[in-house]
Amino acid sequence: MKKWIKELESQVWSELIRFKANDQPAFNLALNKTAHLVDLYLLSQVAFPTGGLYFQNETWIKETKGKRVIIHNNYIIGYDKKMKRFHEYGLSLVDDHALESPLGKL
Length: 106
Prior knowledge:
By secondary structure, this protein is mostly helical. It folds into 2 domains: 2-37, no CATH class; 51-100, no CATH class. It has helices at residues 2-9, 14-17, 24-34, 51-54, 58-63, 79-88. The longest helix has 11 residues, at 24-34. 3% of the residues are buried. Residues 7-86 form the Nucleotide-diphospho-sugar transferase domain. This is UDP-D-xylose:L-fucose alpha-1,3-D-xylosyltransferase 1-like.
């Protein structure tokens, strides 16, 4: 992990993306440069579905109920849209008291 962090921080664009929501290019770069140093495994699609699979297939949701660990909230852009979708599907474990928190939106 320390090697990944060093690699990311050494990139020219590191400062430009530090406060942006999309860190996927940085993650991919670090992974590709260090893949030979770590064991990589594919995650089960049933246990770790993508947003494209989960949110667009009601039959699949019913067939795999109780088997999911984490649902990736991708295939949608924007924090508010992602939060709304998680709430609509009953997947948000965070209540609506973010404004009462001294931290605000996390």
